[in-house]
Structures are given as C-alpha cells and as structure tokens.
Amino acid sequence: MMKYIFNIFMINKKKDQILGSRRFSNYWWATITFIGGISFFLTGLSSYVKLELLPFRNSIDILFIPQGVIMVFYGTLAISLSIFLWLTIIWNVGAGYNEFNNDSGVITIFRVGFPGKNRSLLLEYRIKDIQAIKIDIKDGLTTKREMYLKTKDDREIPLTRVGQPLRLSEIEKQATELAKFLGVVLEGID
Questions:
Q1: pLDDT tens-place string over residues 136-185
Q2: Which domain does 10 fall in, by range?
Q3: 14 and 68 fall within a common domain
Q4: Which residues cross the membrane (predicted)?
C-alpha cells in the first residue's frame, strides 16, 4: 500500500540527476597530464642542474638551451592544465539536476559552476511557458545529440549532460517520455 501511495505522489514529479566533472575520463586525463607535465618539467630541470632527477631517464645529456627550456615550459603548461582539471573535478563543475513538477507547474534546472559569486545556477520555468521538447541530432565527426527545453519565446535551454553523446534510441526515449510528462510536443524527430 505504501509503495502504491509513493508512486502516485511521484507520478507528478520527475527529477533527473546530471553528472558533473567527476567522470572517469576527467580523472584519467588529469592524471596523465600531471604525470607527463612532471616528467617534462623534471627532464628540463635536470638538463639545467646536470643532476639526474628522473631515475629512468638520462636527461643530463640534453642541452638546456633550447631543449631544456622548452621541456620546462611544456611541463609547466601541462602541470597547470592538470591542476585546472583536478579543481574542476573537486568542485564537480556541471553537476546538478533537472526537476519537472506537474503539481506546482514548475521546471527547475540547477547546475554547479566554478567557485565565486555565481557558483550555482538555478533556473525556474513555468510548464505553461514551455512550447516543446526539441532534439538536435547531428552525426559525423563531431556527433551532437542534445535535448532542449523550448520556451514559447523561442529560447532553448539544454537538458542533456556534457560529455559522451547518448545513444540515439536513448535520447529519443527520454525526450518522448518528457514530452508526454509535460504535455508538450516533441520537435526534431523526423
């Protein structure tokens, strides 16, 4: 009986979690970039001080000018990039949720950004102001499969997560279910 009541309560409310920066590919690239940056930096520094700082590499024989300077420069850039990637992972930039509530007639879109005055983004729209759910699909070298909330004043608010594109059948299913849930039309499916 309790499960049945819970399902009735939840039938008018739908909440989709959005994965932020804490995904495997970001951990992978932040780690690889840091290891490569440290290796380049220490190789360039070893050529300057004539002391082996990396045990598995003979970098004393490298001339400091120009090879050592370039290695220190590229190492510094890679370390800086990896620090940026690790900070976006720690702060979980891009995480949030999409909440569709038929009881209150409100759609809430929440995302977490970079620290500062505008760290969180909270958008609220009334369901009666929504014209359609739009799907934008472009296959090719840069595949694009996105779902948008289209308002009556022709604004398009993205609902899909950033990263790997969803399978075509999956995005069509999600868009169809959401359009039925909100009682609006579905655009972009031919």
A1: 888 777 777 888 899 999 888 888 776 666 778 888 888 888 888 888 98
A2: 1-19+94-187
A3: no
A4: 27-49, 69-91
